[in-house]
């Protein structure tokens, strides 16, 4: 074997050893797979299943969380969850929505509160007497009184619905009447229908439910 061949074999052997000892470069690892996009996604384009609607509240009063807007919650002891005797400061929470205050600046002992969707106070209103909820009433035919009476019904129809329970009183300003009905359960609440006449064909023009003496007020707070 020639010296040249031995030298070449030695060089090759050393090269092989060096190659075995040389660090092997790490292969690039694939990026982790996630279900999130590579960039921030604006709320408006995030998947619908991931969007959470926050609760809307102002000053601790939940909006549209209760009977606000419901027109069939009349009771002899209040309206929906708002019971007679509720403090004026607690009315919005019990009602479940905003209430506008009317007339308090002129008479703090008697004034009205109305839901924000009311266009005119006569449509629907709560009366506050001596700081507490004492009465509610309406001149609209969209609301149903306890027992099923409505504005626009005739006196005859009311008489059938509340048979044997009506006390008739003369109207203070017209030829109509006040049809006064007490709570059949024995509570203190009273329902009053006002009519535009005395005959059975006379129409109901408004009604209210409340506690005495406020339920018998015929001029707002008097």
Structure description:
This protein has 222 residues and is of the alpha+beta class. The protein has a domain of 155 residues: protein yfey like domain (protein yfey like fold). Helices cover 14% and strands 25% of the residues. The protein has 3 helices and 13 strands, in the order αβββββαββββαββββ. It has an 8-stranded antiparallel beta sheet with strand order 6-7-8-9-13-12-11-10. A 3-stranded antiparallel beta sheet has the order 3-4-5. It has a two-stranded antiparallel ribbon with strand order 1-2. Strand 3 and strand 4 form a beta hairpin. It is globular, with a radius of gyration of 39 Å. It starts with a helix and ends in a 12-residue tail after the last strand.
Write the layout of secondary structure elements.
Layout: H1 3-21, E1 57-58, E2 61-62, E3 74-75, E4 78-79, E5 82-83, H2 91-95, E6 99-102, E7 110-115, E8 125-129, E9 132-138, H3 155-161, E10 166-170, E11 177-182, E12 190-195, E13 204-210
Antiparallel strand pairs: 1-2, 3-4, 4-5, 6-7, 7-8, 8-9, 9-13, 10-11, 11-12, 12-13
Quick summary of this structure?
The chain has 222 residues and is α+β, with helices and mostly antiparallel strands. The protein has helices at residues 3-21, 91-95, 155-161, and strands at residues 57-58, 61-62, 74-75, 78-79, 82-83, 99-102, 110-115, 125-129, 132-138, 166-170, 177-182, 190-195, 204-210.
């Amino acid at each position: 074997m020639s010296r040249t061949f031995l030298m070449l074999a030695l060089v090759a052997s050393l090269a092989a050893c060096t190659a075995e000892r040389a660090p092997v470069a790490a292969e690039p690892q694939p990026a982790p797979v996630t279900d999130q996009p590579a960039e921030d996604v604006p709320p408006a384009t995030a998947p619908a299943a991931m969007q959470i609607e926050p609760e809307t509240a102002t000053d601790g009063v939940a909006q549209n969380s209760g009977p606000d807007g419901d027109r069939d919650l009349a009771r002899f002891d209040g309206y929906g969850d708002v019971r007679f005797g509720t403090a004026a400061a607690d009315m919005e929470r019990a009602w479940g929505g905003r209430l506008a205050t009317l007339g308090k600046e002129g008479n703090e002992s008697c004034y009205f509160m109305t839901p924000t969707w009311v266009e005119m106070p006569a449509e629907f209103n709560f009366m506050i007497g001596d700081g507490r909820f004492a009465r509610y009433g309406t001149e609209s035919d969209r609301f149903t009184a306890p027992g099923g009476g409505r504005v626009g019904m005739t006196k005859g129809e009311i008489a059938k619905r509340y048979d044997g329970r009506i006390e008739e009183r003369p109207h203070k300003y017209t030829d109509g009447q006040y049809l006064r009905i007490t709570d059949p359960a024995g509570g203190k609440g009273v329902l009053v229908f006002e009519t535009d006449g005395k005959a059975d064909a006379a129409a109901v023009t408004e009604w209210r439910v409340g506690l005495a003496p406020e339920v018998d007020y015929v001029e707002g707070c008097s």
